[in-house]
Amino acid sequence: MASASNALRVFFILAILCAVCTAKRTGAKTGDSAADSAASGASGTFDISKLGATGDGKTDSTKAVQDAWTSACRATGSATVLIPKGDYLVGPLNFVGPCKGAITIQLDGNLLGSNDLAKYKASWIELSHVDNIVMTGSGTLDGQGTAVYKKAKTGTVKAMPNTLVLFYVTNGTVSGIKLLNSKFFHINIDASKNITVKDVNITAPGDVENTDGVHVGMSTKVSITNSTIGTGDDCISVGPGSDGVMVNNIICGPGQGISIGCLGRYKDEKDVTDVTVRDCVLKKTTNGVRIKSYEDAESVLTASHLTFENIRMEEVANPIIIDQYFCPEKVCPGKKSDSSHVIVKDVTFRNITGTSSTPQAISLLCSQSQPCSGVSLIDVNVEYAGKNNKTMAVCSNAKGTAKGSVEALACLA
Q: What one GO molecular function would you report for this record (predicted)?
C-alpha cells in the first residue's frame, strides 16, 4: 500500500509539473497582452495605459494606441479602445477595418499630435473602411498646430495633416469630444455614409487658414449638430459629391462661416444636393452662409436643393453669398469669362436676421451662361451695424423671388 501511495504521489506531482510547463509554453506562444487575447476572439476594453502608453505628454505612445485598435478590431464582440485621463503624445494613427464588431473609442484623456512632420504621410488619425464606430468622451484631440502654423505659411511644408478623417466609414458617430489647433482640417468626412457629429467643440486661431472645423465630401446622410466651432477657415464646409447633409444648431465664430464649396476645382466632381443649414448663430465671421464655385471650373456639376434657414448673424462681414467667380489663387484663366460649368439652383434663404459689419449684406454673383435659378429670399432682414451707410444687396444673373425681406435686399431678377 505504501509503495502504491508513493507512486500515486509521484504521478500527481508529475501531472502538475506537466500542466505548468504546458501553460508556460502556451503563454510564451500567445503572450499575455490584450492584443493576443483579442487575436483569439476576446472582446472588451483595451486600455492604452495597460499596453504601454504614458500620459506625461512627452513619451511617444503611438504603438500602444495602435495596438489597442488592432485588438479591438479583431474582437468578435463589441469592443472599446480606452484612452484614460492623461496627455498622450502620438504620431499618425491608422485605424483600419473592416473589423469584426462595433467599436467605441472612449476618449477620456487627451491625444497630442506629434510635431515631427516627417512622420505624416497624410492625416493624423484616420478611421478607414470601418462600420459601426463611435468616438466619444470628454477628452481632446490636440493637433498642436500652433507650433507649426508658420511653416505652413512659408510653404516649407507641402501638406499638413488633418486631425480626424472618416474615410469609407458607415454608421459613425463623433460626439462630446474637443478638437484643438489642428494642423489642417479638424474633421474630414470623405466617402462615408450615415455619419453624425454632435456636441463637439472645435477651436483654432482665427487667423490661420485651412483649419476648417468639419469638412464633408463625397458622403451621404451626414448630420452635424449642437456644436461650437471657431477656426481660421470655414466652420463647416460641404464639398462635391455630398447628399443629404443636415447642419443644425451650430455656433460659428471666428471663421469664414458655413460654406458649400469650393465646387469645380478638380475634374470629375459630383453633384451636391439636399443640404440644409438651420438654427445657427454666426458671430463676427468673414462670411455667413455661402455657396462658392471656381470661375474656371474643371467639372460640370450641379448644386441644388440647398436651404439656409433660421440663421442669426452677429456683425458678419458678408452674411449671404453665392459666388460663381471664386478664385482664391488669383490666377484663374477663365476669370469673368461667363463660362461657369457649375449650376446653382433651388436655393432658399429663409428667416436670416441680425447684423452685417459691412453695408453689403447680400452678394449673389452668378454666371451669365449659367444663371442661378430658383433662388428664394424669404424673411431676410439683416441690417448694417455701422453708421452712415444703408444695408444693400448686389445681384447679377440671379433669378428667383423675394418675400417679406428688407426692400433693399430683394434684388433678384
A: galacturan 1,4-alpha-galacturonidase activity
